[in-house]
């Protein structure tokens, strides 16, 4: 298998390059800095509340926990990415480089998979309430484990296509600067089809269909004056899942298909290659925003989550006021 210089694949070497490495690195640095603090705080708080204070493991809570873990894993790798894009140096070794590179795509596709699971479960429980009564939380655990295995294996081609093999184990490059392997046409087409169908179009169709079913159920119940709070909550949750999916992942997957065609020299037009190359880091940054947007699902759409935050926030405020009054008394 041949290694190729991505700078000459992404755009033809004879094409003018209007985007410098410094500009791309600055974009990644700023976006990851903006994402890191709120992503870390929101997802840590969400995981703490979901795991410790919500005993009722229904209403997609197990899937939300796994979605939070997927976001936290990616967020915790961001400081190393920020270091690399600022210093342009990777002193942490090849294994950690490939792990951080892999975690980016693991987070993306695990997030997509669990958004699909949340949408399906809320739709199924709304339309089949008797099924919800007999559903066990261990079923969600088994489904989540299967998702991690399938997604983990499915993301392996992303690191197989990138390697430091031709630059030595002491190379200081990582992430976007890793050389990309040149695939044969059949392998390239297979990877594009699998990524787009299984990782994007399939989930998009499923989430859209769940949204349609819930909206249709909501309209019918309104006509019969049988609409309930659960129907409205399910509709809001699936709509937010759809919104997060469309905003974060549609730009990347539209561009990914074209970008892979450019890297494999299928698209050779200079203007098209330049536009695709310039939008690629932007689409990756947009996809990373899901780490900050996913907690909206937990807070705004899960009653138990808001109740627990409100309850423990009141306890914390009471303790602070008690400490202040004690301090004032002593003075």
Task: Report what the structure shows.
The protein is mainly alpha-helical and 331 residues long. It has one domain (2-12, 19-309): Rhopdopsin 7-helix transmembrane proteins (Up-down Bundle). The protein has helices spanning 6-10, 21-52, 61-87, 94-127, 129-134, 137-154, 156-160, 185-223, 229-263, 270-288, 290-301, 303-330; strands spanning 2-4, 180-182. It is globular and about 65 Å long.
The CATH architecture term is: Up-down Bundle
Mean pLDDT: 76
**What number of structural domains do the residues give?**
1
> Between the first and last Cα atoms, what is the distance in angstroms?
76 Å
Shape: globular
Strand order of the largest sheet: 1-2
Instruction: Give the low-confidence spans.
Output: 1-13, 165-169, 313-331
Task: State the CATH topology.
Answer: Rhopdopsin 7-helix transmembrane proteins
Main beta-sheet annotation = 2 strands, antiparallel
Which secondary structure elements does this structure contain, and how are they paired or packed?
Blueprint: E1 2-4, H1 6-10, H2 21-52, H3 61-87, H4 94-127, H5 129-134, H6 137-154, H7 156-160, E2 180-182, H8 185-223, H9 229-263, H10 270-288, H11 290-301, H12 303-330
Antiparallel strand pairs: 1-2
Helix pairs in contact: 2-3, 2-10, 2-11, 3-4, 3-11, 4-6, 4-8, 4-9, 8-9, 9-10, 9-11
